[in-house]
Design a protein that fits this description.
Distance between the termini: 92 Å
GO molecular function: ATP binding; histidine phosphotransfer kinase activity; phosphorelay sensor kinase activity
Shape: elongated
CATH architecture of the largest domain: 2-Layer Sandwich
CATH superfamily of the largest domain: GAF domain
Structural class: alpha+beta
Radius of gyration: 36 Å
Protein name: histidine kinase
Subcellular location: Cell membrane; Membrane raft
Number of helices: 15
Catalytic activity: ATP + protein L-histidine = ADP + protein N-phospho-L-histidine
Number of domains: 4
GO cellular component, one term: plasma membrane
Length: about 525
């Protein structure tokens, strides 16, 4: 006997052992497999679809659509050929295929002319059968149909994996009970609240943390009495949470629950703020179904965030008052209110004033970012002509142009689109773009501002011919507290918040921001806004 024969026999023996471990031959029909053959016949438009399992003597059909026979001899089975490969096996016209043209299943009933079978592997990787479709006329599957058959076959493999788990249940009964108890202890020991429900929406899991937060074991009391023990609120802790907005019910309905914040007020406990994430356990089933939600207590995080906001507001207020006085005093001195100053004094006062202005910018940026993150920065959006806003920004920021010895120019054109924006905040964005362009341009450079209408959007571009930005650094530009690792950039200063604030502001006006640049060849900072259909 050749080595090849020995290898083939060894592989077949392993395959048959894997099939035997499944203990699936000659078992009653199962809905999961019947659904697969039903879907295969419907989606691939064939009269026959089978889940076929091949042993040493026959192929037996675990599920069948359009075929009365429960099995056929292995030597006649198309599937016996299909399991020799790990890829889809397709026979467009069996009557013209020398392997099958004289097969009784082709010359007689069921008159097979077309066959396509995708091998099904057992949990340990052995090819034990196929999910196949059969037609009585020659044809070929499209790429989409082939992909569908592959996906359905993978689902059949998942069912075999599940079957192995179920078959071992008797032997592992004690082990599973122990594991369940261990899982429950684990769930009860974690500091996150975990709740789950079954397909009908009934609670099936409520761990110790969840019971503590709700003040009772909710699973042991009727739903009608839940309100006696706790109330659910919106994040503000005051607005009652609508029933349909309860995270577990949302997950049960199939909605995505991602970082959803709610407040829980249990009897005898302080208000607790929690962050919820979860979803359906079997979303592929469609419709309402078993779901799980994990809740994290963020009460202290929110309290710390509020304290930080209050601290920043207080500090900023306390800093602004003396800073305003300092700026005013320096301005008077530099304006000659007490007479001409020596050049050395003038130089020191200029440095002091510049640093005071930078400190004021930092305070304003910190406050704006804090308000944006807290959702407390209200935008007054209304339709407005864009070109006058841009022209005004150029005029307001003319001191930057003089300071860095650059000039800017608004591209001439008839286009004056209408956008729905907060004018003051859009001015803030433009000022940041223009000041950055001035800082990083060469003396004598020209900064061009362009308005380009593309479809239902307008793109505003601020283009300089300055030092440019390395490609690897560009994705970081709109992050908070980012200053590029560039000695020239550090000399020009900045809070590292300006562009992050621009991004937040533009996005809240339904727009986008971005940059195009090459190192040493200038930069183009842009933002896009949707055009408004309003008539002014």
């Amino acid at each position: 006997m050749s080595d090849h024969q020995n290898t083939a026999e060894y592989r077949e023996a392993r395959r048959l052992e894997a099939l035997a471990r499944l203990q699936i031959l000659d078992t009653p029909s199962e809905q999961a497999f019947d659904d697969l053959t039903g879907l295969a016949a419907r989606w691939l438009d064939t009269p026959i679809a089978l889940v076929s399992l091949v042993d040493d003597q026959r192929q037996w059909f675990k599920s069948r659509v359009g075929l009365a026979a429960e099995q056929t001899p292995r030597e006649l089975a198309f599937c016996a050929h299909a399991i020799q490969a790990h890829e889809l096996f397709e026979v467009p016209d069996a009557a013209r295929d020398e392997r099958f043209c004289d097969n009784p299943l082709v010359t007689g009933e069921p008159n097979i002319r077309f066959y396509a079978g995708m091998p099904i592997a057992s949990p340990d990787g052995e090819l034990v059968g196929t999910l196949c479709v059969i037609d009585r006329v020659p044809r070929e599957l499209s790429e989409v149909q082939q992909d569908t058959l592959r996906r359905l076959a993978r689902t059949a493999e998942l069912q075999l994996q599940l079957r192995i788990s179920l078959l071992e249940s008797e032997q592992r009964a004690t082990e599973l009970e122990h594991q369940q108890a261990l899982n429950q202890r684990l769930l009860d020991s974690i500091t996150a609240g975990v709740v789950a429900c079954n397909d009908t929406g009934e609670l099936t899991l409520f761990n110790n943390t969840a019971r503590l937060w709700h003040g009772t074991d909710v699973m042991k009391i009727p739903a009608s009495e839940w309100g006696l023990y706790y109330d659910l609120y919106e994040p503000d802790g005051q607005t009652p949470l609508a029933i349909e907005a309860i995270p577990l019910l949302r997950a049960w309905r199939g909605e995505a629950v991602e970082n959803t914040e709610i407040s829980i007020a249990a009897v005898g406990q302080p208000l607790r703020q929690v962050l919820c994430s979860g979803g359906q356990l079997y979303p592929e089933h469609g419709g309402p179904g078993a779901a799980i939600v994990v809740m994290h207590d963020i009460t202290e995080i929110r309290r710390a965030s509020n304290l930080k906001s209050e601290f920043l507001a207080t500090v900023s207020h306390e800093l602004r008052t003396p800073l305003t006085a300092i700026n005013g005093a320096i301005g008077l001195l530099r304006s000659g209110a007490i007479g001409n100053l020596p050049p050395t004094s003038e130089r020191l006062l200029r440095i002091a004033q510049e640093n005071s202005q930078r400190l004021g910018e930092l305070i304003n940026d910190l406050l704006d970012m804090e308000k944006l993150e807290a959702g407390q920065l209200d935008l007054q959006l209304k339709p407005q002509l864009l070109r006058p806003i841009v022209q005004n920004a150029l005029e307001i920021n003319q001191p930057y142009a003089r300071r860095y010895q650059v000039s800017w120019q608004l591209e001439s054109g008839a286009a004056d689109p209408i956008v729905r924006v907060d004018e003051r905040r859009l001015q803030q964005v433009l000022s940041n773009y223009l000041s950055n362009a001035a800082k990083f341009s060469h003396a004598g450079g020209l900064i061009q501002v362009q308005l380009l209408i593309e479809g239902d959007e307008v793109e505003v571009q601020v283009v300089d011919q300055g030092i440019g930005i390395a490609e690897e650094q560009q994705p970081l530009l709109f992050n908070k507290f980012i200053q590029l690792d560039n000695s020239n950039a550090r000399q020009r200063g900045g809070t590292g918040l300006g562009l992050a604030i621009c991004k937040e502001l533009v996005e809240r006006m339904d727009g986008q921001v971005g940059v195009r640049s090459r190192e040493g060849a200038g930069s183009c900072f842009w933002f896009r806004l949707p055009l408004s259909r309003a008539v002014l």
